[in-house]
Amino acid sequence: MKYKDYYSTLGLERNAKAEDIKKTYRKLARKYHPDVSKEPDAEEKFKEVSEAYETLSNPEKRAAYDQLGSHRPGQDFQPPPNWQKEFSAGQFSFDDIDLSDLFAQFGGGRQRAGRAPDGKISMPGQDFEVQVHITLENAYHGTEIELDLAIPEYDENGFLHRVPHKVKARIPKGATDGQRLRLPGKGGKGLNGGRDGDLYLDIVLHPHPLFRVSGHDLYLDLPLAPWEAVLGTTVEVPTPAGAVRLKVPAGTQAGQKLRLPKRGLPKPRSGEGDLYAIVQITVPSVVGEKDSALYKQLADNSSFNPRGHFAAGGV
Amino acid sequence: MRVELTEVAWLDETHELSLAELAQLSGLSETELRDLVDFGAITPIDPSAAQRTFHARHVVAARVARRLRHDFELDVQGLAVALTLLERVHDLEAQLRELRAQMPRRVR
């Protein structure tokens, strides 16, 4: 079993008072709780903090933890002789158990337990949540994923162990960024008839080099040459289903959104989002002599004043 | 070893759940969920119906509520306030994402 220093995780001395432990935990929980925090590594940090607090906030667990002595974090160690008996932690091998899973057995750890008809303790399996990164193409067509997870699960004595799970799931088309999906019964196994836990997937879309995603709508920059915007044209634009031709009307302005209906991502049941091409007027960085002369000619002859409204007081 | 392919359940507007199902999936009690509905933090599909049903997307909020209750020792009123604020943050982030998506990536 690897040692973890719960006191240093919370930044406390070993003789810290119970109220200080609570105060420090609350401060750190506000900072790192993954449901409210935007800190990088919030989830990992909060896991460490709450694991430390779960043990140190409970007098029985804290006493048992203190009896383990002080070691270097990560150091392999064995509890002192009689520790197991003194704290009635049951019979198991210390080699393949995580410190957090060991302390989860103590005291409040069995709150959710019920009794199966044969008198054995029954426990619902643990739910498990995991992020799944997919590409825009995956979201458009749907995809299959394979996950290798280590899910906490009870053994026949009611002790938690990380058990490897291989899960294969079909991500249906239309699952876009931020979508949550549930895999019923694919979390930790229930014990003695307890319900199996669920696996929750949190879909994260990889950024795409061309398309930006908002819900099921897609946005694409459409660069146009000045004369294309003035005179109008027909251009080929990429969509997830392949290129389509788009008519750009004469007098198209920069920033204008040209809507391509139903060319976005498919929606879960039926229908599709839209694709928006956002016009950018792009000028060449190098202008040849001939082009330059033509621009000069245009400048000398055009009556167009793009800043006419400045004189009218900006109205 | 052959791994069986699992079909997923959507947590969105396309699936409906009963109060009991929402309680089971979230780990909150039915009483706590009724309180959250009364405080306006979770909205049933038809608030006037005798048997309340919920869009499956509320599973996400209800699970957050269960975690906040446990991790911050919040009571139901505190949970209702936190959930309402989190939903506003979520909506604002969606608006921000939409606006960012409309901004040109590079202007040459």
Q: Would you kindly provide a written description of the structure presented here, covering whatever features stand out?
A:
- The complex is a heterodimer of chains A (315) and B (108).
- Chain A has 315 residues and is an alpha+beta fold.
- Chain A is 26% helix and 25% strand.
- In chain A, helix 2 packs antiparallel against helix 3 (42-56).
- Chain B is mainly alpha-helical and 108 residues long.
- Chain B contains four helices and four strands.
- Chain B has a two-stranded antiparallel ribbon with strand order 3-4.
- Chain B is globular, with a radius of gyration of 17 Å.
- The model of chain B has no long low-confidence stretch (mean pLDDT 91).
- Classes of the chains: A alpha+beta (315), B mainly alpha (108).
Write the layout of secondary structure elements.
The complex is a heterodimer of chains A (315) and B (108).
Chain A lengths: L5 H5 L7 H15 L9 H15 L2 H9 L15 H4 L12 H6 L9 E2 L5 E2 L5 E7 L1 H6 L1 E12 L5 E12 L8 E4 L15 E7 L5 E4 L2 E8 L1 H6 L1 E5 L6 E5 L8 E4 L14 E7 L7 H13 L6 H4 L4
Parallel strand pairs in A: 3-7, 9-13
Antiparallel strand pairs in A: 1-2, 4-5, 6-7, 8-9, 10-11, 12-13
Helix pairs in contact in A: 2-3
Chain B lengths: L4 E3 L1 E2 L5 E3 H8 L3 H9 L14 E3 L2 H15 L3 H27 L6
Antiparallel strand pairs in B: 3-4
